[in-house]
User: What shape does this take?
Amino acid sequence: MHVIVVGAGIIGLATAWHLRRLGAVVTIIDPAPAQGASHAAAGMIAPAAEVVWGQTPLYPLMRSSGELYPGFTAEVASATGAELGLNSTGTLVCAGDRADLQTLRELRGAQSAAGFTTELISGSKARAVEPSLAPSIIGAVDIPDDWSVDPRRLSAALLSMTTETLVRETVTEVVRRGDTTIGVRLADGRSLEADQVVLSTGSASITGAPVLPVRQVWGDVLRLRAQAEHTPLLTRTIRGLVNGRAVYLVPRPDGEIVLGASSREDGRAATSAGAVHRLLQDGQRLVPGILDCDITEVTTRARPGSPDDLPFIGRADDGCVVSTGYFRHGILLAPLGGRLGAELALGISPDWLPDGALDSVSPHRFSEAAPVSNA
Ligand SMILES: Cc1cc2nc3c(=O)[nH]c(=O)nc-3n(C[C@H](O)[C@H](O)[C@H](O)COP(=O)(O)OP(=O)(O)OC[C@H]3O[C@@H](n4cnc5c(N)ncnc54)[C@H](O)[C@@H]3O)c2cc1C
Assistant: This one.
């Protein structure tokens, strides 16, 4: 079977990976592979720390994808010889004051109810494992099984498997015959046909594609590097609430630290100076030493948000599967989303999915039938 995958972000790349493993011939199309949201992502694989109120259907997806991660990354590393920047040291979610600690206590209740292993520890115990934490941290939730990967390394490794089948072009239109997708039209005027088309274009939409309520949630993120004498500044992911605002620091094995991230729906693709200011201000409340770091990069990208923060993964018509709307969890959900998208495209029943998961990510859940864009 020949499958066209439109979009080579982490989702399209993971889908192409699974499609090839299942024996499909894959063409992947993207004018700027791995330069979308996946380029900005911190890479937290944090199914427990990402538990927030009211998102119950998301928990089993995050847990299931988290469980797929070790096998997925081991296979990718072995097939490509790439080092993926995995950090399995764990995560500390820190509280800067009593109100933040109370919020963490309540969230920990939700995390435990969802079946995740967490432990509430004192500020001094947190500093014993991460000496760079601020003296003002009064407590933390220790989450040993929330780890991280370098999304750029993972994308690059997956991309290296696609070189012969990658078309660096923009898809301008999804081509349909009657009610069925049969291929795509490219900006250079060519048309390509396939047995199936998988649409994984993140927050971008294409003429002729199903209209989904995906919105752009902009995120600004900084990349830092500590001076040699202070390296490593951190060994595990540090997350926290500062005056109710979420902030995180994700250390890479090579010494890079990702400080993120803002969340804006103001439509501005440029980096917000105010957001960068707040990130540094909030980040230094958790780890004062970041102010001595070099800023090596400032990146702004749009997360593909959905109304209920769950992705859209499912069949749009007999020739088309959509896989988008991963919002703030696309790196975590890539093994699950990639495998599910590939299996749906090839007509394989995903019987390994948690009960109810397929319905929870249905692209039709906000409408009886997903209409088609003619815009
Ligand atoms: C600051 C920030 C931090 C984040 N941190 C994390 C994190 O720690 N953990 C986590 O799990 N998630 C995180 N995320 C979310 C995660 O990055 C996204 O959910 C994920 O990258 C979405 O992947 P994607 O492949 O769907 O989209 P993208 O990575 O945006 O890829 C879409 C691709 O489609 C291509 N495309 C678009 N239109 C067309 C077209 N017409 N023709 C051809 N190609 C097209 C684009 O060029 C792009 O390469 C973060 C996001 C941001 C912005």
Remarks:
- The chain has a mean pLDDT of 94.
- The longest strand covers residues 294-305.
